[in-house]
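Please, structure for the following, as tokens.
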Amino acid sequence: MANTADAIIDRRRLRRKLTFWRAFTLLLIALALISFYFLSTGEDSFSSKSTPHIAKVRVEGTIFENEELLKRLKDVEESAAVKGVIITVDSPGGTTAGGEAIYEAVRKLAMKKPAVAQVGTLAASAGYMIASATDHIVARQSSIIGSIGVLFQYPDISELLTKLGVKVETIKSSPLKAEPNFFNPASDEAKAMIHRMIIDSYDWFVGLVQERRKFSHEQALALADGSVFTGRQAVANKLIDELGGEDKAIGWLATKGVDSKLPVVEWKPVQKSSLGRLFSESALNMLAQYLGIPQESAGILRELTGERIFLDGLVSVWHVDGKPVGAQ
């Protein structure tokens, strides 16, 4: 009996030791993860942003009303260390409301600091609108510029529903409520209503171009027929000011009193931490498992939940890629 009691005591003692070391190990892992989180979310360029520099802000992809980008532009505007700003544009456009919001933010910034746009491959539609908010536009010879205009798109799936034997019944307060819709061909009245909206936004866009590029109304209208131009054509049509790259943008800033030897520091969007991405991936994998689909399908879930297929409302866009501006 004594041996049995001693064995029980030894097992309990061993269990307590194992519990202690397991808890200690978990604590170390938790501390390591917390440290990794703060390191990965830290501002790696804080010191470079606190000394005099030229700020670079990228406007890329399809344009939405991006709160993070608007805040970043506001921070650049208010930073005493920023002496000049390069807005790098590479966008086919996007929603008119998104373009308007970013345009206004860039204008406010440009009223306080010299701001120049440097176009990469493309600055079309709302992308060109944003570039025009700066006081000087530089583009490559082969950049694509323009597509000044507005459109409204909606799918009509009525024939598909008919083939499937589905009929959508609608009761509404007035004929133009919720028109046009996916389920019926648009009436002439609905098309006329949307056309009036488009023309109103188009006139507003043309007015911006006329004001910013110092065109007459006739000159602005002649260039605002939806056409796109190469950089060479755009400079000839005065849609941009100069051909070249970032060096030309820095050269223009120098004419405004900005030291050309200052470092160019990119103000990047706030990135989700590696730890956060890990947790997001795990959550998506768990959701896929819960739904009874392969974990490889988590990528599809990410596409469905993280990006929008259609742009809502009026858009000013050349080609839609579905990725919000600033997406990495």
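Residues 1-41 form one domain. The radius of gyration is 28 Å.
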